[in-house]
Amino acid sequence: MKRLKLFIPLVIFAVLALFLLRGLSLDPSHLPSALVGKPVPEFSLPVVGEQEPSVSNASLQGEPYLLNVWATWCPSCRVEHPYLNKLAEQGVRIVGLDYKDEDDAALEWLSHFGNPYESVIADRDGSLGLDLGVYGAPETFLVDKNGIIQYRHVGVVDERVWRSKLAPIFNQP
Question: Where does it mainly reside (predicted)?
Fold first, then answer.
């Protein structure tokens, strides 16, 4: 019986190692979202540079779009931005959500790096981001023509992500 007690730490270690290995093999860019299959949360916010609300979830319906959460303080957003410009040039509808950012900095960023967005929603206090379950930037939600979230991608959208994950869903009839 005393010999079995010696193996308890080894068993505990093995169980913990299995949990850690399982966790490390998960795709960190695919965080589950409770909103997939549900409408974009109700909101009415201004566009960057304005004070009065002029964009709502209802005003964006009609055709599918990518809702791209970004900010000037986000280094990964700088990496992602050139590819978003390419997608916009190809006719992909992209709506920006400037997350917890300053309007002046966002306007300067867009002037310098180009503006791929149909409109840029100012989420100054992060309220819409909170409703969407945003962990940080960049995050991209694929929203269908009826305003239903079909997919959530955490991290940079590049050509590989577009072709393998987003485009097949975006191009569905």
Answer: membrane
Of 11-15, 40-44, 134-138, 141-145, the poorest mean pLDDT is in 11-15
Helix (H) or strand (E) holding 108: helix 103-113
Top pLDDT among 161 and 23 is at 161
Order of strands across the sheet that contains 149-154: 120-123, 94-99, 65-70, 139-143, 149-154
The domain containing residue 128 runs over which residues?
Answer: 29-170
pTM for the predicted model, two decimal places: 0.81
C-beta neighbour count of 59 within 10 angstroms: 11
Tally of domains in the chain: 1
Nearest residue to 49 (alpha-carbon basis) of 131, 124, 138: 124
How far apart, in whole angstroms, are the C-alpha atoms of residue 106 and residue 108?
5
On whether residue 50 sits in a domain, the answer given is: yes
Amino acid at 84: L
